[in-house]
Amino acid sequence: MGILAANIVAFGQPFQAYMYPDAFLTEHGPLSDWLLVAQFVLIDSKMRGLFTLLFGAGLYLFMERTWDRGGTRWRQMWRLSILLLFGLIHYFLIWAGDILLYYAIIGFLVVPCLKWSAKAQLFTGLIGFVFGALVYSAILSFPYLIAETSLGQQPQFSEAREGMLSAQTSALADAEVETALIRSGDYPGVLSHRANEHGTDPIANVLIFALETFPLMLLGVALYRLGFFSGEFASSKMRQWGWAGLIVGGMLNLGIGLFLKSTGFGYYAMLAAFVGWSSIPQLMMVLGLAALLVEYSGQWTGALAERVRAAGRAAFTNYLGTSILMLFVFQGWALGLFGELGRPQLYLVTILTCALILLWSKPWLERFRYGPLEWLWRCLTYGKLFRIRR
Fold first, then answer.
1. What is the pTM assigned to this prediction?
2. What is the spatial distance between Cα 144 and Cα 290, in angstroms, rounded to a whole number?
3. Transmembrane ranges (predicted)?
4. Is 388 among the domain residues?
5. Which of the ends of the chain has fewer CB neighbours closer than 10 A, N or C?
6. Within a domain: residue 12?
7. Sign for the pseudo-dihedral over CA of 271, 182, 35, 245
8. What is the span of the domain harbouring residue 151?
């Protein structure tokens, strides 16, 4: 549900609007500006980071059970190959914001590391993440300084500045082409445009996010093995670390967000902030949020808690199912709301969709052992049909 809150802008507006509010096809007024800051602080990268951490833990959890049955890591590699296929289908036929494909590819790199010691995984993950944050910040700060500050107005940088502004113009022009196809209801045209103009984007995403995703997955493996997720850490430390990470990381992110607002949410400033500058605060908030969820979720009871847990048990189905639902909400051949809703209205779509997720997941899992796609993935992983009804 948090991933949807992060992605909703890219579902209902041109993809570039995810980070660059000037790409909105509706007015992005003062309220929307503040909502963007709030999303940057609370949602963006944090939900993906938490998802990545848990994905790494899930890789090791699966292998524990596989090793207990006498299996090997090849079963995990096969399982990730199936996930890769799901990701290809998701990206090319449903939505360009797929995350499964590069999770599968980077998961291949994590599998050989699963028998390292937990400490080696922990330190490699931490050092790798910090190294990646420094690399991202160094690389992406340069375009911002050249394209959007007075530094780029110096003669020696004029050619570089012109190239960066040209790249920005090309990206926005491409968004206009895709927008026209979506609004016209030309779904085959949308798919053709994605394949022809953005067919290599998934590989680019792997290269761009590898220095974030690989370390976070490795951290997830290490934390799982050290008992972080199973309550083996002292409650007082979990609460202290959790709140400290969430508050300090949140304040740092707020500072970056307010800086972005003061500069008008520039194209390259937003790119540098999302991928580079906010990385360390992101890690603090992700680990803090994970600690607080471990510490407090067990105490959360009642009807809503049961529905949230059921939604989590059907997370794969809910993730892909949401993408399919958004096709019917936004594509021109369906409700045709693409480019029609501002940021507040898009958040309303998020709330309604989350309500739907909570509505269906619990009754389904009361009758069936798995979510539909969880069941399919399991059957394909082991090459046999599993009983789905309880």
1. 0.93
2. 32
3. 47-64, 76-94, 100-118, 125-146, 206-229, 241-260, 266-294, 315-338, 344-361
4. no
5. C
6. yes
7. negative
8. 2-382
